[in-house]
Give the backbone structure.
Amino acid sequence: MPRIITVDDPLDPRLAAYRNVRERDLVGRQGRFIAEGEVVLRGLIARAAHRTESVLVAAKRLAGLADALAGLPEGVPVYVAGQAAMDAVVGFPIHRGVLAVGVRAPPRSADEILAGLGDGALVLVLMGLSNHDNVGGAFRNAAAFGAGAVILDAGCCDPLYRKAIRVSVGASLTTPFAVLAAGEDPVDGLTRAGFTPIALSPAAAAPLSQATRPARTALLLGTEGPGLPADVLARCETVSIPMAEGFDSLNVAAAGAVALHHFRFVAAGR
């Protein structure tokens, strides 16, 4: 069982990891991350490969979280504070009243993750997505549509940034992912692992509705505006999402959701 520790002083040194959360978001946490909200906390405790180091909850939330907290390893501290004290520690009104500090699991390579996926696997590849909302949304979509993993290039933002975790509703904690090194070629790695790379591009002539699903499928998404690099597109099958005349832009996470749904439920039956 976890250790329940009541804290009243916002300056209590045991709460240092939770102090000024937004400012700490900008400078990094040296191998740690902040998980925010009940759904995210439950996923972290029950399904994530990452270790929960401590939990901070508002006193009014403790009883409702008892079943989840019971799943923590023995000795993990659960700090319980009044709402005002918790707000003072965090630096802003934390209405959800639920935070945790997690320790990142050792990173895995893309080759390792891809090799462990079976026939029929679907993976999502993100290139140049620097917006935390988009990365979080992409992870949420990947989980919703059964993608086995997410591969990110070096230009993507950290999927374990607090806002990305929150937007993903914890999916970035539970979906296997790998971050490529700068200059590492995602297409080469995918083809070595037996995946067919399919790139989403508004310039593609073939509509998504006609795309079939290969045995092992990798869907590639690029940043809004520039999209995927030309040398990547040249080595992929390309598909587009037809839209109303005079408009050719969807938010990248929304476009990814449409395409993932197609390959998970529509093309899979062909």
Observations:
- DSSP finds eleven helices and eleven strands in the chain.
- The two ends are 50 Å apart (CA to CA).
